[in-house]
Design a protein that fits this description.
The chain is α/β, with parallel strands linked by helices and 514 residues long. Helix content is 50%, strand content 11%. It folds into three domains: 150 residues, NAD(P)-binding Rossmann-like Domain (Rossmann fold); 136 residues, no CATH class; 168 residues, no CATH class. It has 18 helices and twelve strands. The strands form five sheets. The chain has a four-stranded parallel beta sheet, sandwiched between helices. It has a two-stranded antiparallel sheet with strand order 3-4. It has a two-stranded antiparallel ribbon with strand order 7-8. Strand 11, helix 15 and strand 12 form a beta-alpha-beta unit.
Amino acid sequence: MRSKISQDLTQDSLAHPGIITNAAKQILPFSKSQPSLSQLVAMLALAVTDLISLSMALLVAFLARIYILPALTEAFSTKLPSAVIDHIWWVPPMGLSCLIYEGLYSRRLHFWQETRRLMKATTLAFLLMLAVISLGKMSNEVSRTILVLGYLISIILLPLGRLAGKAVSAHTGLGTQPVIILGLGKTGKLVAHFLIRERFLGYRIVGFLDDDPVKQTHGARIGDALFPVLGGFKDSEQVMRETGVRDLIVAAPGMPGRDMVELVNRLQGRAASVTVIPDLFGVPVMGVEADYSFDERILSFRILNRLANPWNIAAKRVFDLVIGSIILIVTLPIMLLVAVAIKLDSPGPIIFPHRRIGRNGKEFRCFKFRTMHLHSEEMLLEHLEKDPGARNEWEKYAKLKAHDPRVTRVGRLLRKFSLDELPQIFNVFKGEMSLVGPRPYLPRERLLLSNYADLILLSRPGMTGLWQVSGRNEIDFDGRLRLESWYVRNWSLWLDVTLLLRTAGVVLSRRGAY
């Protein structure tokens, strides 16, 4: 049996979609199975889409080399060998071969997982092309500038092209893969919610299996959809024969280990793939290495502390400095305009340095644009004393959503678009913060961190993080701690990249900003 394992569909996840998405996508894609005709057509259409994207990237690179670069600098001539196109016809097919090698047609992946693999495959293709040019002594025939530009453009076009292609496939139902979920408990419902929400993955839930007679009678309502419960676990083989579905998810982590092994072994010979969610609640899902022993038939998992690795710490720091420099250059004019607006709006300093808890519990001064009136603490205490509803809201979220009398007129605008946090880029350069990480907590909140403190404080606090893209102030304090502990346990540089990109969309939508 070859099955993926989800290791973080915990009860903590039930109230927090951000955790659910990150955890649930670890159980996907399912193991490879014999594709149907519809799936083969979908795979072929996806390959054609990729070939078009690669060709378009090369064409845009060619046009940029001919018309744009010479206009920018005299280092580039407007003249190229007349047969330059004839000598690079093999570039898109080689790129396609690397996509096939990376398994991008045999596996169904979440967008960010797929984007990571696309970057890996295009980088491999680029290196192979350079090797072919060098070994084939084609330097005078092939423009390496076009290849470099084509490589950079393809990193953008390939994910977007695939997203468009999958949108068409999802709308037409082309290439959908039917699945049956064994288990209608909380975990089974989580998996179902994920498959429905991530419709571009192309999975179609045929039904559930559960031993509860009541559930078999009433079916399973997941969101607005009602799915049948086709029988109990013992009916698995019969249901597969009747429905023709041969891809199963065993989502019954509470099942005793011996019964689970017996069920999976019984299904393995009849199903094309079996995805198992074992009782490993709370174990990180990223950076886990699986191993096994032939003789003892033991399956083991090696869990790494990525933020304890000096190379990872150095990589995160370099990432902060490089990307932070770009962000500073782009946002510096905005910060200057904001500074003028704050000074004209209300008396007080432009920058408000606030004591926060940093890595390993060390306190630092966190820079933010001032969004509140002077004497804000006195105003808060007076408001909470007069308004019991506001006091309850403050105790739950440590924020006031409806009305916060401390906030200035300019401050409300800055908070809506998170512009008040831009000065934290200087904390990043000082090494006190990171671009991505847990929220910088107040010293008075240290006790509220409870058992999460040691874990969360392993990382530098971030300008953005998992809680910001998962609901921000719509998530209560306890839920925020769960999200941020998940981030620290599952940290990777790619996770930082995706969270940084997703932050832009959250800021523009103003979701959860108060």
